[in-house]
Amino acid sequence: MSKTIIISNRLPVQLQISNGDITAIPSVGGLATGMKSVHSGGDSLWIGWSGLTDEEIPDVLAPKIDKALAEHGSSKVRLTKEEVNGFYFGFSNRTIWPLFHYFLEYSEFELSYWETYKTVNQKFADAILEKAGEDDTIWVHDYQLMLVPQMVREKRPNISIGFFLHIPFPSYEIFRTLPWRREILQGLLGSDLIGFHTYDYERHFLSSVRRLLGLEVSFNDIYLDDRVIKVDSFPMGIDYKKFHEAAHEHAQRNESQKSELQKRLDTHKKSAPDAKFFLSIDRLDYSKGIANRLKAFEYFLNKYPEYKEKVRLIILAVPSRSNVPQYKLLKKEIDELVGRINGELSTVSWTPIWYFYRSMPFENLIDLYTSCDIAWLTPIRDGMNLVAKEYIATRTDKTGVLILSEMAGSANEMNESLLINPNNFEQIADTLYQAINMPKKEQQERNGILQKRLERYNVEKWANDFMTSLVNQKEKEDVYVSR
Ligand code: ADP
Ligand code: G6P
């Protein structure tokens, strides 16, 4: 029976060694949380990196790795410390991530990173070739593996390959600065179908293909001598039902069933019933605009001082890529900003910012989503931003306000939220004011529309649309080849 092979750098879980044993913790990030829902439902194998380098795994634990991953329908690609440094911390996160998020000044064009990226992409391709039958479908994910489609195609000319990019594809003017721009495009063109979150990213990609490779592009098809490749947008959805039902179940809990976090949130709400909670949840990443958000919060409190002691900002930041210097610097900047703002504004009974720097279990995410009046997400640039969608899905009585950066891919589908430019503090302060004072009826009208849309175009539908499009494209290619 044919199967789908999902391939991405991250697996649904990351392995860690604690107390001399292997433990699996859920991976954070849109790719892992989204694809987990797709993977859990069907007959797929997920290939990726376990999160541990070869050097970190003692011989006695080696057999346990495969077992731990098999429990999650996964299989590993082994990476050495040097490979992780050059491929993951290097080319993926010091070259491509900043470049594709328009942080050109952070991008490092280092030949040794590129060489390791090629070597490691070949390892992933080899892992696919080892596991894949001729009738299987290969679904490659994200910027860490952009050479894999062509590497697989060389060995299996007829196999079905889809590729989905979870981050923005930048405009031609940015992309052309990459020394290995043609190789990246050629790597991607090994696919039959290339998917992006938005039409803009799709357009940018096609423009680069036209201008850098001089290929024939007709609408969203790219013509090679012996193949036709389709490029399309598929905005990724969430597991709407999971979030919505978890929030319903959460609302029915009695006191003894509540988490410590929920009890603390309840206590604060009771002591100041008119107070408003603002929430932001992100990986600690410069693309997420966390520092800007803190400065804008301070700006808001200065512009509207009547809200001092009446609002509180809860920031949940997940540790991410902390070996990369820009992330270390950002952590320091955020620690300092939180310290300074709290130091200057706190009173005996009020701490304006609650800052958590950690990953949280799903249950606590639901505590936060359901307890906070306003979700406030200000990425400078974001491929999609699933947190915005998750917040709306948990608002079972349809109250709550979402303030979202227009630079997030999800803003295209969430027009009923309050959209802001993350660099415009004046606009942000006024939008926070508007959100605090928005009548309940208006909140419910806006969220009602958003919820219907998110429920309809959920992650399952997203994956089905992608797969259906891949099958159709393969048929179209067969006709083209036999013409
Ligand atoms: P990105 O993929 O860039 O990290 P997204 O907003 O698209 O951004 O996805 C983030 C995912 O990670 C969401 O599904 C969210 O629920 C999850 N997540 C974010 N922060 C945490 C946290 N502190 N603990 C657990 N999960 C988190
Ligand atoms: C984004 C990327 C994913 C990545 C995730 C977490 O969502 O698109 O590919 O897995 O961030 O980042 P990490 O570096 O921890 O895998």
Task: Kindly describe this structure.
Helix content is 47%, strand content 18%. With 483 residues, the chain is α/β, with parallel strands linked by helices. The strands form three sheets. The protein has a nine-stranded mixed sheet with strand order 5-4-1-6-7-8-11-10-9, with helices on both faces. A six-stranded parallel sheet has the order 14-13-12-15-16-17, sandwiched between helices. Strands 2-3 form a two-stranded antiparallel ribbon. Helix 4 packs across helix 5 (148-155) and helix 11 packs parallel to helix 12. It is globular. 45% of the residues are buried. The model has no long low-confidence stretch (mean pLDDT 96). The structure holds adenosine-5'-diphosphate and 6-O-phosphono-alpha-D-glucopyranose. 6-O-phosphono-alpha-D-glucopyranose (G6P) binds next to helix 1.
- Main pleated-sheet profile: 9 strands, mixed
Overall strand count: 17
Q: Tally the helices: what do you get? A: 17
Low-confidence stretches: none
Describe the global form.
globular
Give the helix/strand class: alpha/beta
Radius of gyration: 23 Å
Through-space gap between termini: 30 Å
List each distinct ligand once. adenosine-5'-diphosphate, 6-O-phosphono-alpha-D-glucopyranose
Indicate the proportion of strand residues.
15-25%
The strands making up the biggest β-sheet line up spatially as: 5-4-1-6-7-8-11-10-9
Helical residue percent band = 40-55%
Q: What is the residue-mean pLDDT, rounded to a whole number?
A: 96
